[in-house]
Specification:
heterodimer, A: 278 residues, 7-stranded mixed barrel, 4-stranded antiparallel beta sheet, 3 helices, 7% helix, B: 202 residues, alpha+beta, 4 helices, 13 strands
Chain lengths: 278, 202
């Protein structure tokens, strides 16, 4: 279960959490006439099946997957009308990783700290779903969208992530990150996209004092294999962050399958400060 | 001041007192509407401004901010009833050159201040231990540290708000509820809170 997450509590150690592929999540909600940030299901690779307790509209976005209603093929990426008692099935993702299933009215489980997001790192929010769980649904907010096809870039297996250098690029041989190609590790999850490939050598001795980290931060642990921090990442950490993936490329991280090839491309400095001097 | 992507800024300062002062000034200015940030996150030597509506305007205004570091925090005080019977008490005693019983008396004789949170919700990194009493982490972290464990590592003291893996050295425990999502704020020990451990006997 995911919605916009829990911004504003990072100083207490609460991860932001929230849907990993934000454009797909918002699109699913718009398709069924919900507010953009209503709670939806985020299915990871293997899909999900739900039985409608009452007639409703649903939409599946994100990772393309076969969709059926009572066994009959139905369309992906459009609003679907589902009768009471019908079973909607989202199959295994054909490309990408995370499919989003929105229901008109939104999923109305109890919010924790203002959000219905399941936070896999800290255990906040509803636990991951299990077969037989019943999910309350809210009242429809508006009519489903009247459109035939919603544009959505297909997730690929050859991914380029644009990133800004820093804040701690001088702690590691950050050049390596830009020259080498990496593979998405199967250990990746909502906390981080783990990459394997040529390790980034450490250039500085000692430990970096713990500091706040942002989503998209490319963190380098002692083994030199970079990790892109995703929505459920810890709020502070002591491993150097050598680059930050552009916000518009975070959906690519959400949809990067194990084994996919990842390369980094450097964005020009933001010019936000005159230099590194205090 | 270091840009972190396009929507965040990391400000480095000299030490804990400066972090506290800058963090307090940032909260005051954010409440006054000077800037918008989703999160202002203190660290050991930094303050992170994340989710900025305009990183550029904050970057321009920050050099004009003034803040006065104070030697101590003026935050609220929380008393923590502590039983000093942790598994690592003998090892910490050896490192500190004292008996296990003296570890508890020594640890509870200092006042601590929450420098920052992280690792998990409500996990507070508290300063206040003198540098001569810094001990290293365990070589191999425990897979499960019980909730309420009082622990030390490096310059910090912490209390595990819930059971989790952990590599800090365990010296005691408390039954204080450190984290409650129905409380506002949910963390008992937020940045700036002062903490006194009160030895509650075995």
């Amino acid at each position: 279960m995911q919605d916009r997450g829990r911004p504003g509590l990072a100083h207490l150690g609460v991860p932001r959490s929230g849907a990993l592929d934000q454009p797909a999540f918002k699109l699913a909600n718009r398709l069924v006439g919900n507010a953009e940030e209503a709670a939806v299901l985020e299915a990871t690779l293997s899909g999900v099946a739900v039985r409608a307790g009452a007639a409703c509209h649903v939409a599946v976005t994100g990772a393309p997957a076969p969709v059926t209603v009572d066994g009959r093929p139905a369309a992906w990426g459009v609003p679907l009308e589902v009768a009471a008692g019908a079973v909607l099935r989202v199959g295994a993702a054909e490309r990408g990783v995370r499919s989003y299933l929105a229901v008109s009215g939104g999923l109305m489980v109890e919010a924790v700290l203002g959000s219905r997001s399941t936070d896999l790192l800290s255990g906040l929010g509803p636990p991951p779903l299990r077969a037989g769980d019943r999910l309350p649904v809210g009242d429809p907010q508006g009519p489903p969208a009247a459109l035939d096809m919603a544009p959505y870039p297909a997730p690929g297996d050859d991914i380029v992530l644009e990133a800004h250098l820093g804040p701690r690029d001088e702690w590691c041989a950050t050049r390596t990150l830009l020259e080498a190609a990496y593979q998405v590790s199967p250990d990746s999850n909502r906390v981080g996209l783990r990459l394997s490939g040529r390790p980034l050598a450490r250039l500085r001795e000692g430990e970096l004092p713990s500091e706040g980290a942002v989503t998209g931060a490319v963190q380098v642990p002692p083994d030199g294999q970079p990790i892109v921090l995703l929505a459920d990442h810890p709020t502070t950490g002591g491993y150097p962050v050598v680059a930050v993936v552009a916000e518009r490329d975070l959906p690519k991280c959400a949809q990067a399958r194990p084994g996919a090839r990842v390369r980094f491309r450097l964005l020009p400095p933001t010019g936000l400060s005159g230099g590194r001097a205090e | 001041m270091i840009p972190v992507g396009t929507r965040a800024l990391l400000v480095e300062v000299a030490g804990q007192a400066e972090v506290r002062a800058l963090y307090a000034e940032a909260l005051r200015r954010r409440a006054a509407g000077d800037f918008h940030a989703d999160d202002v996150v203190p660290g050991a030597r930094t303050v992170l401004f994340d989710g900025l509506a305009s990183a550029g305007s904050l970057a321009r205004s920050l050099p004009g901010w003034t803040w006065v570091p104070e030697s101590g925090s003026d935050g609220p005080v929380v008393e923590v009833p502590a039983v000093y019977d942790g598994e690592d008490l003998p090892a910490v005693g050896a490192a500190w050159g004292m008996t296990p019983a003296e570890v508890g008396r020594t640890h509870s004789s200092f006042e601590y201040t929450v420098a920052f949170c992280g690792f998990s919700p409500g996990f507070a990194y508290m300063t206040g231990l003198p540098p001569r009493l810094a001990v290293g982490r365990l070589e191999t972290p425990r897979t499960a540290v019980p909730a309420g464990s009082i622990a030390v590592a490096g310059e910090f003291t912490a209390i595990y708000p819930r059971s989790s893996p952990g590599g800090w050295r365990l010296i005691g425990r408390t039954d204080l509820e450190l984290w409650d999502v129905h409380r506002d704020p949910p963390a008992l020990l937020g940045p700036g809170v002062r903490v006194r451990f009160v030895e509650a006997g075995p």
